Amino acid sequence: MRPLSATATLLLASLTLLGCQQTKPQALDPLSVTGTCNAQAVQHFLGKTATPALLDQARNQSGAQTARVLQPEDVVTLEYNALRLNLTTDDALVIQRINCG
Prior knowledge:
CATH superfamily of the domain at 34-101: Trypsin Inhibitor V, subunit A
Shape: elongated
Oligomer: single chain
CATH class of the domain at 34-101: Alpha Beta
Largest sheet: 3 strands, mixed
Helix content: 25-40%
Number of strands: 3
């Protein structure tokens, strides 16, 4: 068996590392995004207990692409997503606020 040349070894190492790189998700162009999030359409859920079924129902009724439940101690990013529905709850999962973002 013949040993690899230094160039071939470097090329192999570079290709191996290239395959390990994480791809950065592409940012959405706000002008190309379709859909809506209408938090007013789901205000009737205020005071109810957040469950997975209720979250899905609220997402469908609001027209949002995604939805999440935010509890008092949850850590969230400051990114704004106009197509995401937020159900903000207290410690007992009772919905206190509903908004998009």
